[in-house]
Amino acid sequence: MAEETGSKVAAASLDARNGNFICGVVEGFYGRPWTTEQRKDLFQKMKKWGMDSYVYAPKDDYKHRAYWRELYTVEEAEHLTGLIQAAKDQNITFYYALSPGLDITYSNQKETTTLKRKLEQVAEFGCTAFALLFDDIEPEMSEADKEIFQTFAQAQVSITNDIYQHLGQPKFLLCPTQYCSTRAVPNVANSEYLNTLGSKLAQDIDIMWTGNKVISRHLANENIQEITDVLRRPPVIWDNLHANDYDQKRVFLGPYSGRSPDLIPKLRGVVTNPNCEYGANYIAIHTLAQWSRCNLDAQRDFSINDSISADIKLETETEDGLSGEDVPVTLSPNIYHPKQALRNAIKDWLPEFSKYKAAWGPIAKPQPAVAIVPVPIIPSINTCMSLTTGTTTLTASGASQPVVCPNQLQALAEVCSTVSSVTDTIMTPGPGPVMNSLVSDTKVVTNDSIPNPIAAVPIPIPLVDGRSKSITILEGAVIKTDKVKSNGTPIIGDTTIRDGQRAVSRDENVMSTDPSISNESSLSPSEPMDCNSTPNISPAHGNKTADESSDDIAMSENSTSSGSMQIEPNESNHMIVETLTEKDRKESELTYEDLALLCDLFYLPFEHGAQGLQLLQEFQWLKSNAHIVISANQRKDHSNPELEEWFARAEKMNEMSEAVNRLLLHMTACNNRELLYDLYSYIWDIRGVISLLNSYIKWLGFSKGWKEAFMSGEQEPWVFRGGLTADLQRLIPVDSGNDLFAYKVPDAPTCKVFTIRPYLGSDEAQVYDVCNRTCKDGLEDHMPLLPELKNVYADRLVGPYVTLHPEFSFVVEDDAVIVGYACAAPDHRKFRIKQEIAWIPEMCEKYPVHLAQSTTSSVQECISHFHNFKNEVFVNSPTHPASMICSLLPSVLDHSVSKRLVTCLLASLRANGFFGVHAAINSTDSYTHAFYGKLGFSENTQDGVKGKIVMGRTF
């Protein structure tokens, strides 16, 4: 038996060497599917690059999974037939996949007949290859199935073999429920499930495998050999390396890596399950195609192989921790090097941006909305905050230089691909809308008339006090009944409701956490192949839980996840039209350097690109060595070489920020609007964060004081998804500021760049102008004022801050014109004393009492303030000792600007040992009240002042 198995494996490996190797793409992610037009474009590219297979398996295309039983309508059939023919025209094998595992009864002959009829219909469209996917389902059989089948694996094998024979033994793929090593129970070698598949499944059916984990950093020979022995056939790798459906903040533009070409003879094939955004997958697919044509690994030590010259041994990492750039020019075509593959792909990708393509619908993320919840704190998850004593090097001047170890970044992706350690704390995302990608060439539509079988349904739950309220709970929360009333109605005692990143408690309809519930429920991280943890709710089972009170009731959050996807209503078919002149586009052409930077900023799940790492390192070094600037300012000695190095590296940081600004500008001007809309939100987001870091560095250069406590770098890291954007955000010293990084992406691309920088004395006139234009609850006072009163509002509101505390003042510019400011005083009590001594006497002289006659009440209030300053009641808050003022012109429509501006201000306060700030506004100022509210400020009733509202926040 062993010899027979070995011969079959050897024969399969020989087939791979002879070209019978599956290489292509599986559209298998959660969220908005690709459009018909995009899939046809994919087929053309795949043929050009020598790839041969496409697997149609979009999780949220409703007749693939949720409504797998339903046949296609005439309109849908026409589109699917066209897709299959388009694949044939390009010599691409079109695998049609179904995911019936949510609710199929394997022993029910009607179910089998329904499944056969559905696949027969697709076969009539010209399809000759099929797949059954049993991933992301509960490994439990129904009572009816248990009477027929001994194990879950036997049930799946039985129906799969039956379908395979019924269709005439076509090309066939199976995705098992245990599809990676971490999901094998108890392990790969001893998994009864996997061994049953290996021994009982028809030998010509190929089995899919993701590797050691859902998202595998590396595919090792040992893992592939182990699964091959168990399955008795080489696996087809379903590769989630570039999948981003588990994180709305990340897109992966790095090269295919972590998989040696040595594996190719040991595999049946590789299909990549890439980014949700079709336009973002050029690099992922192009580099996979290059990899599939190679048989030698450039990252292997060739010096141990006599047949290969040691001269072509490559360095993959330089001494400073950055990814190596030393790729030999004469690299042999059969040697795969990720960096060289990336360069080749970028060169081919660049012309795509010049093609004229329209965008359909506003900028939106195609991923399903992910509920942000706490994840286990891993010491190395914060790449720059977790530096140890062994992670520093010395610069030429002798100053210590933190080095970011790229291996530390594995921790972030580990969170997304580990099941056992975090199942009790991670909630999966709520379900998206029912979507259909087979009724239009250019867009995906929602089917509002079709209820989502996995959607949230408010269910009346009698609470302990007898009152009944309808509540919805995040998908995956399993409600356990503590006791039952005499009439049989369950009483719910405890469960968990997640709000943002923390469990919240409300008196009536939010209950406390019950550890026993989370331990028994099957919650798992939001992974590319595991975004739905309510498999028992489906069209066939939707009504069961209502009548069976003894069963667990799985409910889901009534979220607005559809708002986060780029989908269109059925009746809508509008094209986005933008006004951008041809001259503007020619002057802003995208370059190779732009795309290389873009790829480095959004690289891979476990590593950042070279320029991304450089950003992290430069900021960390500048922040950690800011004492050099402070010391030089105190000694008034600017000849120190260390000081010169600090400012030289600060300028380098500024140049990197400018390069990201140019990337945004050039990307916004490209002809391919569809591609732009896929990438814009990511570029826009990270540009803002890098600009914020650059602004903070500029402030450090101006700073006159510093708290040594800040230099320790011991602030609490933020543990949330987000890739390089999140890693950069963590470097800003604002612990409780997650809300300040929640931005709404513009509906249409804009190349307008707002720059935040420290206040200079020469900015006074422009800052005063902004203040005067926003003094009346965000608007200008249109009543004409005497010349001597033109600055009375600014002298009252912002003048004391920029005069007495310019080091805590920031401005925001638009095309070199100041459009907003944020100013603070770290200690409001001392600030009052300074005003009384150094500001108020000058103002009383500038604005004598008689000027208040025959003028507006607002001007009278300002003048009265100056002359009655001593007698005024002021805020004296122990929890919010600092005071601030912030204002932007109404023309600034980008809401992220105010958040980034305030983040800079709060970071400067925290760096000097202050952790709470307040703003006092007029009680009638509704706009200003809402403005501060959106910045995370809340009313502080304890510090109330007559006629004023005091709003504060900590950070």
TrEMBL record:
InterPro entries: Acyl_CoA_acyltransferase (IPR016181), GH (IPR017853), Glycosyl_Hydrolase_84 (IPR051822), O-GlcNAcase_cat (IPR011496). Keywords: Glycosidase, Hydrolase. Residues 556-573 have a biased composition (Polar residues). It holds the Pfam family NAGidase. Residues 515-528 have a biased composition (Low complexity). Residues 486-573 are annotated as: Disordered. Residues 21-296 form the GH84 domain. It is an enzyme of class 3 (hydrolase). Coiled coil: none annotated. SUPFAM superfamilies: (Trans)glycosidases, Acyl-CoA N-acyltransferases (Nat). Its EC number is 3.2.1.169. Residues 496-509 have a biased composition (Basic and acidic residues). Gene3D superfamilies: 3.40.630.30, Glycosidases, STAT, domain 1. One of its GO terms (biological process) is glycoprotein metabolic process. PROSITE patterns: GH84. It comes from the Eukaryota. This is protein O-GlcNAcase. It comes from Dendroctonus ponderosae (Mountain pine beetle).
